[in-house]
Amino acid sequence: MFSVTGRRVVVVGAARSGIAAAELLVGRGARVVLTETRDSFDAAARLRAAGVDLELGGHTRETLAGADLIVVSPGVPLEQPVFDAARERGIEIIGELELAWRWLRGRVIAITGTKGKSTTTTVIGRMVSAAGHHTLVGGNIGVPLSEQVEQSTVDTIHVVEASSFQLETTMTFRPWIALWLNFAADHLDRHPSVNVYAAAKARIFANQRSDDWAVLNADEPIVMQGAARTDARRVLFSPMRAIDSPRVGEGYTSAFAVEGDWIVRRTSTMAEPVVPVSAVELTGRHMLGNVVAAVAVASTAGIPPQAMVEGLHGFRGLEHAMEPAGELDGVRFVNDSKATNVEAARKSIESFERGVVALIGGRFKGGDLRDLAEPLTARGRAVIAIGQSARLVREALADTLPVIEASSMHEAVARAYEIAKPDGVVLLAPACASFDWFRDYAERGRVFKEEVARLRARFGESTTKA
User: Fold this and answer.
1) How deeply is 187 buried, as exposed, middle or buried, from its count of CB atoms within 10 A (0-12, 13-18, 19+)?
2) Residue 251: left if φ>0, alpha if ψ -120 to 50, beta else—which one?
3) What CATH number does residue 374 fall under?
4) Residues 6 or more apart from 260 whose CB is under 8 A from it?
5) pLDDT in tens, 33-71
6) CA 70/CA 284 separation, integer angstroms
7) Domain end: 68, 94, 120, which one?
8) Which of 197, 359, 365, 402 is most deeply packed, by most CB within 10 A?
9) How confident is residue 1, by pLDDT bands cut at 50, 70 and 90?
10) 354-372 residue pLDDT tens
């Protein structure tokens, strides 16, 4: 049994998961030091009261080299020289996800992918809960896994969103069901290459055994390659096409896809309608693909179709993920601030038939913004370039359609509205991180909605609610 009693543990980073890890560790008898580059943070007094020592203003080699165990928050790059002395001493360096996993008593369903993780994680959690299981949803979404440890029982099913930053620091993490949704270039401001990013994602399968399950996107070669060595039983899904039954017999137990009006499960001997497409209340073809993946996982977990439908009922999406933000004189506003990479922005744009005025930009994370040219040519009226990468957006897309730079969200929304009239869509689909103008994607989405609300208050006589 993993124990930290009496051990000196250094937690690096005071974001949400770092704080949760520190509280869990001190509660389990560790002598905890939390280091943070900021000089202060909101939970500092609470941690000190719990017995956590704080070192603020930076991470030091001496503190890390003197640890028995180091727990790194997902936002902290491991390549920093400050970790070198600790590595030389052979000190174990893990992440918060790995730490919490070592104490969980329940089974884990883990979800990774470049886009759609939060929506799919939420849908799976709703389906599992609707079937009557004790269900805890968290990880990279909502509640850190460390906050779930004390609630974990042998009957609990943990539905865990896992980012590449979390997975790269796992050692023994072993999901009962592991889902890899999709893959596209992302986070190249942090990962040194696309291959390193893919390898981090593939760690979701690293410790699975023959009685576990790997649920794979059949349309993504990198996903299929990443699971090539897993010992887990394999399940396929496709967001876009039917999967031929013979493929199921080639080492795969079943396959899920949309066929006509149903999400269908196929084996080598039968085809079974599971969930009607009409039960899906989300906007966008890519959102339907997320539901197909969720159905594949839920079915693998033994969730009956009725509970899947119940879990979908009334779920119209997460805040900042294809979220309707209002309508003004025939112009719709949609907040997809969570579309923080090029592939997610492309899927967002493709959700509309025409009239899109897209707000694109922020802190660039890699990928090719020119990949947005094709969907914008077919559906777009203009691009409003925002944030630190506005020049990159202009260079990539100015030959496709008009690109207008805006110096604030207020200006961006106002100009987009004028172009979108009388029947277009103002779509916040940034394809970039938010950290130039905003604290995070959520603040960016909230500010977008506030600017829409100001427009509606100003011109609201003919406004209808979206």
Assistant:
1) buried
2) left
3) 3.90.190.20
4) none
5) 999 999 999 999 999 999 999 999 999 999 999 999 999
6) 42
7) 94
8) 359
9) confident
10) 999 999 999 998 889 999 9
409 and 428 in contact (C-beta within 8 Å)?
Answer: no
Domain count, the chain: 3
Residues 157 and 276 in one domain: yes
**Domain end position, chosen among 60, 94, 128:** 94
Mean of the per-residue pLDDT values for the chain?
Answer: 93
What domain range is 185 assigned to?
Answer: 104-312
Cis omega (within 30 of 0) on the bond before 422? yes
- Kindly state whether residue 199 falls inside one of the protein's structural domains: yes
* Residues 136 and 176 both lie in one domain: yes
Q: How many helices (H) and strands (E) does the chain have?
A: 17, 20
- Provide φ and ψ at 273, rounded to 5°: -65, 130
Pair (39, 108) in one structural domain: no
Distance, in Å, from the CA atom of 321 to the CA atom of 181, rounded to the nearest integer, reads 16
Q: Report helix, strand or coil for 459.
A: coil
- Range 448-451, long-range pairs (CB < 8 A, 24+ positions): 448/325, 448/333, 448/335, 448/337, 448/359, 448/409, 448/413, 449/325, 449/326, 449/333, 449/335, 451/409, 451/410, 451/412, 451/413, 451/414
Same domain flag for 346 and 299: no
For residue 3, being part of any structural domain is answered with no
Q: Is there a single domain that holds both residue 346 and residue 458?
A: yes
Please report, for the domain that includes residue 286, its CATH number.
3.40.1190.10
Tokens of 17: 């998961």
The yes-or-no verdict on residue 464 having pLDDT over 60 is no
User: 401 and 340, same structural domain?
Assistant: yes
Could you tell me if 241 and 308 lie in one domain? Answer: yes
Nearest to 390 by CA among 369, 375, 371: 369
Query: Which tens digit of pLDDT belongs to each residue from 307-334?
Result: 999 999 999 888 898 999 999 999 999 9
Distance CA 360, CA 346 (A): 11
Give which of 98, 78, 79 is closest to 167, Cα–Cα: 98
- Residue 327 and residue 300 share a domain: no
pLDDT tens digits along 118-175: 999 999 999 999 999 999 999 999 899 999 999 999 999 999 999 999 999 999 999 9
pTM value > 0.70: yes
Residue with tokens 């719709």: 332
